[in-house]
Amino acid sequence: MFALSFVALVLASTAAAGPLKRYNGLSVSLAGPNDISSLDELKFTASVTNNGAEDVKVLKYGTILDSGLPTRSFTVTKDGAEVAFTGVKLSVSLEDADETAFAVIPAGETVTVTHEVASVFDFAKAGAGSFTFEPVQTFQIAGADAEVKSIVQMDKVSASSAPSVTVNIVGDLTKREMAINKRATDICTTASRKSFIDASYSEAKSLASIASSYIGSNGANSLFTSYYKTNSPTTIRSVFNAVAGENSSSRTLSCVDSLGACSSGVIAYTSTQTTNIYYCSIFFNEVATSSLCSGTSVASRNVRGGTTLHELTHAVAGTDDVGYGCSFDQGLSAANARVNADNYNCFSTQVYANTQC
């Protein structure tokens, strides 16, 4: 037996309007089993329909259209408590992304994808029972012909209410592991890349320390509120302090794509299960933090220390990837700003540019 759930999505205003002139919204349907006795049966079919008059291009990463990577496409709860996500969280550069990072949905047509989620949530720890699966409620869209190089070229679409499917799971709840490339190793053995990663790690901790000190001295000033709205400075500062004080001897920083997540435009990613961080090839095109004083801008998001800080917030503070781009970050609600890793990247690099250059 399968349950079916449906929601209409409406266009939400963003700080930078996207290229679409007319837009009537997307609709999403989700189908999944009602009762299963093994996690191997836990599969969902999601369909996204373009109800608008124009074709649209949708960023797939971190949405229900992203069935290829072990990213968070759903929120899963049991008895009102969230089930731990054990997949990966990404840093993304749209400037480096090709068309495989997007799905084009023609007007009036539907794109359907299948999700197998057994390996990206900890069902074993939650125990048998009734689980509710709610798809991620936001998309980033642009015109189908747009050559997207920045998130500010896209519009944010958010669900007015979330569809969900409830599944009763009994029997085999043994933790499924994500597929790992058998050729992968746990550490970077290329000397130049290892040195680059080590430098980014030191710069990330320095950026976090400078940002924490800045908040301690300035509190909720205009820069702080532009990125964090009404959040408590103490709350945000605690995340930066956690990065600045990171000292885990078991956490791996690797230049090998062990989980196969280095798709188009992906700079780096963090495994939420191990908190290990993996760097993709385009990361090594980024620049030192000192380049913020000459040669690059905060909005470019190409500072290696900022990228590693972004990933470390996933590892030590459990942040998520609500979206990417400094202008986008400043348009988020207080709740989303607090958990969005990119807010910490953009804020800390802006603080550095303002105070160290």
TrEMBL record:
<keyword id="KW-0732">Signal</keyword>
<feature type="binding site">
    <location>
        <position position="310"/>
    </location>
    <ligand>
        <name>Zn(2+)</name>
    </ligand>
</feature>
<keyword id="KW-0378">Hydrolase</keyword>
<keyword id="KW-0165">Cleavage on pair of basic residues</keyword>
<comment type="similarity">
    <text>Belongs to the peptidase M35 family.</text>
</comment>
<dbReference type="GO" id="GO:0046872">
    <property type="term" value="F:metal ion binding"/>
</dbReference>
<feature type="disulfide bond">
    <location>
        <begin position="262"/>
        <end position="280"/>
    </location>
</feature>
<dbReference type="GO" id="GO:0004222">
    <property type="term" value="F:metalloendopeptidase activity"/>
</dbReference>
<dbReference type="Pfam" id="PF02102">
    <property type="entry name" value="Peptidase_M35"/>
</dbReference>
<feature type="disulfide bond">
    <location>
        <begin position="188"/>
        <end position="255"/>
    </location>
</feature>
<feature type="signal peptide">
    <location>
        <begin position="1"/>
        <end position="17"/>
    </location>
</feature>
<keyword id="KW-0865">Zymogen</keyword>
<comment type="function">
    <text>Secreted metalloproteinase that allows assimilation of proteinaceous substrates. Shows high activities on basic nuclear substrates such as histone and protamine.</text>
</comment>
<protein>
    <recommendedName>
        <fullName>Neutral protease 2</fullName>
        <ecNumber>3.4.24.39</ecNumber>
    </recommendedName>
</protein>
<dbReference type="GO" id="GO:0005576">
    <property type="term" value="C:extracellular region"/>
</dbReference>
<keyword id="KW-0964">Secreted</keyword>
<feature type="binding site">
    <location>
        <position position="321"/>
    </location>
    <ligand>
        <name>Zn(2+)</name>
    </ligand>
</feature>
<dbReference type="GO" id="GO:0006508">
    <property type="term" value="P:proteolysis"/>
</dbReference>
<dbReference type="InterPro" id="IPR050414">
    <property type="entry name" value="Fungal_M35_metalloproteases"/>
</dbReference>
<keyword id="KW-0479">Metal-binding</keyword>
<feature type="binding site">
    <location>
        <position position="314"/>
    </location>
    <ligand>
        <name>Zn(2+)</name>
    </ligand>
</feature>
<dbReference type="InterPro" id="IPR001384">
    <property type="entry name" value="Peptidase_M35"/>
</dbReference>
<dbReference type="InterPro" id="IPR024079">
    <property type="entry name" value="MetalloPept_cat_dom_sf"/>
</dbReference>
<keyword id="KW-0645">Protease</keyword>
<feature type="active site">
    <location>
        <position position="311"/>
    </location>
</feature>
<keyword id="KW-0482">Metalloprotease</keyword>
<keyword id="KW-0862">Zinc</keyword>
